[in-house]
Amino acid sequence: MIPGATIDVDDTDLATLNDKIKNGPAGDYTVKVSSNGKTCDVTVTVRDRNVTIDANDFIITEDELLYANKDIIKSKANVRGTDEGTAFDFNDADAMDSTAYNELKQVKAGGSKDLTFTYTDANGKTTTSDPITAFVVKNKETNAASKTTIGANNVTYTTDQLKALGTTEAIAAKIKSDSGVIAVKGGSKADASQITVKSGSATITSETPKGTYSVTYTCNGTDVAITVTVVDSGKVTEITSDKVELVVGDAALTAEGLLTKSNAKAKDAAGNVIPDAKLTVDSKKLDIINKRLMNGPTGNYSVTVTTEDGFTADINVSIRKPVVSMTAEDFMLTKETAAALTGEAAAKDYAKVGVTREGTTVADPFDKITANPDDLAKIVAGNSGTIGFTYRNGKYETGSVTAKATVVDVQYSETKGTDRITIGADNVTLDY
């Protein structure tokens, strides 16, 4: 360490980094720093903020719903979460979108509406909760045995999952838990023990073969039927994938390349990866992605993948413009040399402009670099000043940099070891 040394940070790199911190995407980025003519790259890792947001199913009476605003709905759902380990509650979370809110306001007693909630962090990124259900009931009555509302979700299991659960009792408890069955009596949530399986429902055992089965839950005379689907182990019920980030100007993507980049995996109902599952990529949508890679525009796209038995899912693809960084050296030249200076010579021979694309040096970029004509004209006229250079390779791959040009009457250069010494001065006229 040299105390007092001045370290300069590349403004373009720093601006790019701040943009990634604010808008993403996450990744590793380089910032060029320099001191006393020496430069190096500092790698900065930008990661997504660690945000969670949760909410609960809730019950609301018709009268409560009539006067409920979005804040009341958030409170009823007990919206809460964490942002980088710091807890927040429904006062900090955004309300559901207006469409969902307006649709909820139209629900009558006995109905329900699925809702999601969002939280926007300091960088403007939005995280959305899993869906929860709002159950609307009649206004509370003194009769505890008043009408009951009941709801539940369909469930799916593999034959191996059922075998692992073992007893019929354990399977029944698992189905009841996973279905999320909920009942409301007289405006209050019923205890789970009051919800029972109705006579005549299918009995699911460890030996139940693949197929669909109906199970009906009942509470206080009100029923709800769910479908229990049993699939053979190894049957695809889900395709998971990561979002793929691509850059305009990248090489065309093959189907295999997309599956690899997205880490696409076929899974069964138990969440187990099916290694021999064949995934077919929609060639038309892949062609669209490759056209966007060639000419833009940037944006978010999706490509559908399909299994042999017809199960489909979308892989999300984001295409952005490339990160371009440029460097240039200040330079000195005589008025005589400046008079014949061209933009290419200024960039290549004097400012020694360098270009990197996504951290990789662009070889011989000078046919794509232009000098600012006004700046160049001033230097050609014999005036010192700043000259700007612009790199452009298509619509999206662009960058700019400036260098200081000092124009003198005479110039002397000498190379000693690895350091080049240049001295310049203007002629002067004195009276005597």
What does this structure look like?
With 432 residues, the protein is an alpha+beta fold. The protein folds into 5 domains: 8-46, no CATH class; 50-139, Sandwich (Immunoglobulin-like); 147-233, Immunoglobulins (Immunoglobulin-like, Sandwich), CATH 2.60.40; 238-320, Sandwich (Immunoglobulin-like), CATH 2.60.40.10; 324-425, Immunoglobulin-like, CATH 2.60.40. Helix content is 22%, strand content 39%. The protein has a 4-stranded mixed beta sheet with strand order 13-18-17-16. A hairpin with a 2-residue loop joins strand 27 (354-357) and strand 28. The two termini are 52 Å apart. Residues 141-145, 414-421 and 428-432 have low confidence and may be disordered.
Structure keywords:
432 residues; alpha+beta; Immunoglobulin-like; 5 domains; four-stranded mixed sheet; 11 helices; 22% helix; 39% strand; elongated
Number of helices: 11
Radius of gyration: 33 Å
**In the residues, how many domains can be counted?**
5
- CATH class of the largest domain, anyone? Mainly Beta
Structural class: alpha+beta
Q: Which CATH architecture of the largest domain would you pick?
A: Sandwich
Task: Indicate the multimeric state.
Answer: single chain
- Any idea what the shape is? elongated
Q: What name does the CATH topology of the largest domain carry?
A: Immunoglobulin-like
Q: Measure the end-to-end span.
A: 52 Å
- Count of distinct strands: 33
The amount of helix comes to 10-25%
Low-confidence stretches: 141-145, 414-421, 428-432
Task: Tell me the strand percentage band.
Answer: 35-45%
The main pleated sheet reads as: 4 strands, mixed
Main-sheet strand order equals 13-18-17-16
Average pLDDT score: 84
